[in-house]
Specification:
This protein is about 35% helix and about 10% strand. By secondary structure, it is an alpha+beta fold. The protein has one domain. Strands 1-2 form a two-stranded antiparallel sheet. It is globular, with a radius of gyration of 15 Å.
């Protein structure tokens, strides 16, 4: 079966970090691990296929205020709370949302 095209809004790509996490768990301290996950996650949500899917799912509106201007894809939970045990949950389609710049700046959770 052929892979769907990246611009198809029904296609959500799989997050594939560059390094093996079993390797990282053994050699990195938790702060370095969180930094690596943060950088990898931000790179993932900048992909056009990810942004297109999330924006389309949320009807191209901020999920808090309904604005259609200056939209961003954002993690529901703060990426600063990532740990070695829960890192796989942060880049699934249910853990991402559309927020406008204003709501994203006010986000507390």
């Amino acid at each position: 079966m052929a892979r769907p095209k990246a611009n198809n809004v029904d296609y959500f790509p799989t997050w594939k970090p560059r390094k093996s996490f079993s390797y990282l768990k053994d050699i990195l301290d938790p702060d370095v691990f969180v930094d690596y996950i943060r950088n990898s996650s931000y790179a993932f949500i900048k992909k056009p296929a990810v942004r297109g899917f999330i924006f389309s799912r949320d009807n191209n509106k901020c999920v808090i205020c309904g604005s259609q201007k200056n939209l961003h894809v954002d993690h529901v939970k703060r990426i600063a709370h990532v740990t070695i045990n829960n890192y796989t949950e942060y880049n699934k389609k249910d853990s991402l949302q559309t927020l406008c710049v204003s709501c994203n700046g006010r986000k507390v959770s």
